[in-house]
Design brief:
About 35% of the residues lie in helices and about 15% in strands. It has helices spanning about 40-55, 70-75, 110-120, 135-140, 145-155, 170-175, 195-200, 225-235, 245-255, 270-280, 285-300, and strands at about 10, 15-20, 20-25, 60, 85-90, 95, 100, 125-135, 160-165, 180-185, 205-210, 260-265. Bound molecules: NADP nicotinamide-adenine-dinucleotide phosphate.
Length: about 300
C-alpha cells in the first residue's frame, strides 16, 4: 500500500496502527439526504479508491450517512484488507421523499438491526470498530447496550467498541472505562474538547478527531459562518505563515494535539485530499505558532 509520507499512530488500547489522516465518509451520503452537494456513484467510486491509493487506512461511516456504507462496500469492499473500518450504531435513519431524517434509539434490537445491515452493506464479515452514535452513559448502561456490543465482539462481528460523542456526555462515558476509542470534535476554531480528549486518552482509549479541518475553515466551498467568524475575530490571517492555506493551518493544528491518533477528514474533493495528505506529511505546527493560535482563539470565543 502507498503511504505518501503519512504518519502512523497507535489507536490507543486497540493497538491498531492507523494513519493520522483518516477518512470521514459522511460526504458520500448521496442524493435526497441533506446539505448542498451530492457526490454521484462514479465520483464516489474514484474517490474511495483514491483514499486507499494515497495510503489512508482508517475509514469512518455510519448507517446515518445515506448510501455511504453501500458505496464503501461496493467500491472498495474488494480492498477490505487495506483499511480499518469504523461504523456506528443506535441509528434509525428514515428516508423521506426529499430528505433523510437522522434519529437515534437506544435499544438492543436497533443495535442488532444496525450490525446486520452494516455488515451486509459494507460487504464484510467483520467491522473493526463499532461506535455508539451518541448516547449517554446512563442510558447505554440501563438498556444493557454495552453488553450487547461486547456480545458482538465475542462472536467476532466486531473487534473493538467505541463512542462518538461530545460534551456534556463524554465524561460519563469515559468514566465507564469500557471504550476502546472515543470520536470527538476538535479543531483550533472549536477547541472546547481539548482537555476532555486528554482525559479520554488517559484511559488508554484511541482518539479519533472529527471536524479536524473545521469544514475547511474560511476556504471551504460549504461555508460555516460561525467558524469563519472565529477565524476573523482571532485575526488568524495575521499568523498564517506565507504559502500556507487556512485549511493546512487548521489541519496541522489538529494533528498537533498530543492525543490525536487519527482525524477523519471529510473531503470529497481529490485536490483537497492531496493537499491534506501533503499538509499532514509536514507534521505538527511549531510550538510558538500553536500557542499564538490558542491564545488568539481563546480571546475570540
Ligand atoms: N456525531 C458523529 O459521529 C459525527 C458528526 C459529524 C461528523 N462525523 C464524522 O466526521 C467526519 C468529518 O466531519 P465533518 O465533515 O463534519 O468535518 P471536517 O472533516 O472538518 O470538514 C469537512 C469539510 O471540509 C472541507 N475540506 C476538507 N479539506 C479541505 C481543504 N483542504 N480545503 C478546503 N476545504 C476542505 C470539505 O469540503 P470538500 O469536500 O470540498 O473538500 C468538507 O466540506 C464525517 O465525514 C463523519 O465521518 C461524525
Amino acid at each position: 500500500m502507498a503511504n505518501l509520507g503519512m504518519i502512523n499512530k497507535t489507536l490507543g488500547r486497540t493497538g491498531l496502527q492507523v494513519t493520522q489522516i483518516g477518512y470521514g465518509s459522511m460526504g458520500l451520503r448521496g442524493p435526497k439526504t441533506w446539505g448542498v452537494r451530492v457526490v454521484d456513484d462514479e465520483d464516489a467510486d474514484r474517490f474511495l479508491n483514491r483514499v486507499l491509493d494515497v495510503g489512508i487506512n482508517f475509514i469512518d461511516t455510519s448507517p446515518d450517512y445515506g448510501v455511504s456504507e453501500q458505496r464503501i462496500g461496493r467500491y472498495i469492499g474488494a480492498r477490505r484488507d487495506e483499511f480499518y473500518l469504523a461504523t456506528k450504531c443506535g441509528c434509525c435513519p428514515r428516508q423521506h421523499e426529499d430528505h433523510l431524517e437522522v434519529r437515534h434509539d437506544w435499544k438492543k434490537d436497533v443495535l442488532e438491526r444496525n450490525i446486520e445491515s452494516s455488515l451486509d452493506r459494507l460487504r464484510t464479515d467483520y467491522i473493526d470498530l463499532l461506535q455508539f452514535h451518541g448516547g449517554d452513559a446512563e442510558t447505554l448502561q440501563r438498556e444493557g447496550l454495552i453488553d450487547t456490543l461486547c456480545g458482538f465482539r465475542d462472536s467476532g462481528l466486531i473487534r473493538f467498541i467505541g463512542a462518538s460523542s461530545s460534551l456534556p456526555n463524554l465524561p460519563g462515558l469515559i468514566e465507564l472505562d469500557v471504550f476502546d476509542t472515543f470520536q470527538v470534535p476538535y479543531s483550533c476554531l472549536a477547541p472546547q474538547h481539548h482537555d476532555v480528549i486528554t482525559s479520554a486518552a488517559a484511559t488508554e482509549a484511541g482518539i479519533i478527531i472529527r471536524g479536524g479541518i473545521a469544514h475547511g475553515g474560511p476556504d471551504a466551498e460549504i461555508e460555516r459562518p460561525a467558524l469563519d467568524d472565529i477565524w476573523k475575530s482571532a485575526c488568524l490571517d495575521e499568523v498564517l505563515p506565507t504559502g500556507m492555506s487556512r485549511a493546512e493551518l487548521i489541519l496541522r493544528y489538529t494533528l498537533s494535539h498530543p492525543h490525536c491518533h487519527t482525524t477523519i477528514v471529510g473531503t470529497c474533493d481529490p485536490q483537497h485530499l492531496a493537499e491534506n495528505v501533503a499538509a499532514a506529511a509536514r507534521g505538527p505546527l511549531a510550538g510558538d505558532l500553536l500557542q499564538e493560535i490558542r491564545e488568539r482563539v481563546s480571546r475570540a470565543l
